[in-house]
Design a protein that fits this description.
By secondary structure, the protein is mostly beta strands. The protein contains 2 helices and 21 strands.
C-alpha cells in the first residue's frame, strides 16, 4: 500500500513538472547594449518550449516573429520585452544614442589647445557645434552625430582661429577617430578671435592655408 502511494505521489509530481515545462521559459539576448539611430538590433531568441511569441520593443511597436530585428528612430533607453505562450516574460534594456555614428578627436600636435567640431548644411549653417574640453591633448569625449562630414577646428596659442581642411568623412554605425597632428593642413584666420561658431562661418575669408604646427613654432605651447 505504501509503495503504491509513493508511486502515485512521484507520478503526480512528475506530471506537474511536465506541465510546468510545457509552459515554456522565455529567454533572449542582444549582441550588445548600445546602438546608433537606424542601427539594426538583432534579437537572439533562446526560449524553450515556445509555441507563440510576442515582442514589445518599447517604442510602441511589436512583433510575433521568433527572432525579429528592429531599428529605432529616436534616441533613448528602451526596454524590450518577450512574452512566450502568453505566460513567460523576460525584459532587456538597450540604449540608442542620438546619432548614426560617433567620433572622437585625437590631438597628436605639440599644442595643448581648445578644440571644436561641427557639420555644415547645404545653406552653410553650422550643425551640432561642439566644444571639446579646453587643453585637449589626447582624445576628446565621444560625440554622436548624423552628419556625413565633420569639421574640426580650434584656437591656436596666438588666439588665431583655425579649421582643418578637408573635412573628415564619417563612417556610419561606428566610432570614428579624427586625428590631427603637426602636419595637418588648416586654414588660419589672420584676425584673432574667440572660439565661437561665428568665427568658423567666416574662416576662409582672409585666411591662410598652412600646416598646423610648422617647424619654427615653439613646441608644447598652451592656449591662453
Amino acid at each position: 500500500m505504501r509503495k503504491n502511494l509513493l508511486f502515485i505521489t512521484i507520478a503526480i509530481f512528475s506530471l506537474a513538472a511536465c506541465k510546468r515545462d510545457d509552459l515554456g521559459k522565455s529567454s533572449f539576448s542582444t549582441s550588445k547594449t548600445n546602438y546608433y539611430l537606424t542601427e539594426t538590433v538583432s534579437l537572439i531568441n533562446t526560449s524553450t518550449s515556445a509555441k507563440s511569441y510576442y515582442w514589445d520593443f518599447g517604442d510602441g511597436t511589436s512583433s510575433t516573429d521568433e527572432s525579429p530585428q528592429h531599428t529605432y528612430a529616436k534616441a533613448g533607453v528602451y526596454t524590450i520585452r518577450l512574452n512566450i505562450n502568453g505566460t513567460s516574460i523576460v525584459n532587456h534594456a538597450v540604449t540608442v544614442h542620438n546619432g548614426t555614428a560617433s567620433y572622437q578627436v585625437l590631438n597628436l600636435t605639440d599644442y595643448d589647445i581648445s578644440l571644436v567640431s561641427y557639420g555644415i548644411d547645404r545653406t552653410n549653417n553650422l550643425l551640432n557645434f561642439t566644444n571639446a574640453a579646453a587643453g585637449s591633448l589626447g582624445t576628446t569625449d565621444t560625440v554622436y552625430t548624423a552628419n556625413n562630414q565633420v569639421y574640426v577646428g580650434g584656437t591656436l596659442p596666438n588666439d588665431s582661429t583655425f579649421v582643418v581642411v578637408p573635412a573628415y568623412t564619417i563612417k556610419p554605425l561606428t566610432n570614428n577617430v579624427l586625428v590631427i597632428d603637426n602636419n595637418t593642413q588648416i586654414y588660419v584666420n589672420a584676425i584673432a578671435g574667440k572660439n565661437d561658431a561665428d568665427q568658423f562661418l567666416q574662416l576662409k575669408t582672409n585666411s591662410i592655408k598652412r600646416k598646423l604646427a610648422p617647424q619654427t613654432d615653439p613646441a608644447k605651447q598652451t592656449a591662453q
